Amino acid sequence: MSALFEKVLIANRGEIARRVIRTCRRLGIKTVAVHSEADANAPHVHEADEAVLLGPPPPKDSYLNRDALLAAIEKTGARAVHPGYGFLSENSDFARRVAERGVTFIGPSPEVLDAFGDKMKARHVALAAGTRPVPGTDEPIAIDTPEGVAEAKAVAGRVGYPVIVKAVGGGGGIGMQIVREEAGMERALKTCSDRGKASFADARVYLERYVQEPRHIEVQVLCDAQGNAYALGERECSMQRRHQKILEESPSPAAFFQGEEGAKRRADLFDAALRVVKSVGYVGAGTCEFIADASGDLFFLEVNARLQVEHPVTEMVLGLDLVELQLRVAAGEPLPDLSRVHPEGHSIEVRVYAEDPKKGFIPKPGAIDELVWAGGVGDAQTRALRIESGVAAGSKVTPFYDPMVAKVVAWGADREASIAELARALAGTKIAPCVTNVAFLQAILESPEFRSGRYDTSLAEVLAKRI
């Protein structure tokens, strides 16, 4: 029996629930899966030691149902809760209610979650810590007053068009609109405010300079309660469709990270990320997200106060188990000296979705009768290849949740070897009769733009038009 926690409830589903179960099993920790009616026969339910039904398929009635989750914790006697990512992973109210029951929330404290609860709060934390956010407004824009609209136009004139209006509570590209000239400002403010209110119950908006040819770079951080904090490398996350990531790699192949000057830029980036999290007493795993322009000038965007979907590429190049380290930090243990851990080789992750790239990446839920990965049926876990899937043959991709089928993660001694391993894995993949983006992912790997490493967040949409 592990000395960490006797039993952990995983407040999530799919591949991340299976990922946490795998580490817990290795450490001798019992696990509790939760599920909706739609996920009653999902792999994560069968792999856990116990399973609890939360409710009907809609997330609000199941995975977002805090009362049902708290009841499951009490029923099973779980001593800790791992929230995964998405759903309630960054919800300070849920974390607070878990802690009030004497149960450990495996993540930052409710106070830290509040500090990074929306993009505006995160911007304030970064400014106070001396880390540069993208130039823009430091407070929400009062869009219902002439003075507020005039202020937005004045800021846009100062930072330079084009600018981007963002919903304060936004995510996944929702509530964002580019404004290229002053005449479009008022309409953009109203549109983003309306979308923010509808999607996040938050009508506030703010404005930033729109970074041209942007690259999305994020830094993995890990901090313990004893004051130790580490930046565990960067991830390149610029391959996106609809502002959502579909491929991530580590280290970043960007030219501005090469050579002595690039090494200094990387060190400065890590320092900027650590200043932000240290300033709020962060404990746990998290990610500081930055955006870079073509010259390599980096600006802070936000903090994801949880594990990221793309965490495996960091694990592959560092040889670490971030879930295990999360568990140990949550149990009060100090981190080992991670300053001695250095990246080896290159890792790339692609997200296999049940979607149609030829039709605007529209989700295509449906049954999966046959599921074959390179090397055989089932999930692979090797030094060179990891397949992390939330489904199995006989499963269904339902319309209720994100349509991700799996993450295929490859490692190689260098970037070319990693691309070759990933291409081999995708060539050996068969998912039927479900429509997926596998062929599109193969097209990305074959494209000269991607292979050169000189790409930005627009490339996926460009490549989609070629197929």
UniProtKB/TrEMBL annotation:
Keyword Repeat assigned: no
Sequence ranges assigned to domain Biotin carboxylation in this UniProt record: 4-465
Residue stretches making up the ATP-grasp domain: 126-331
Keywords: ATP-binding, Biotin, Ligase, Nucleotide-binding
Pfam families for the chain: Biotin_carb_C, Biotin_carb_N, CPSase_L_D2
Domain of life, source organism: Bacteria
Protein name: ATP-grasp domain-containing protein
Taxonomic placement: Bacteria, Pseudomonadati, Myxococcota, Myxococcia, Myxococcales
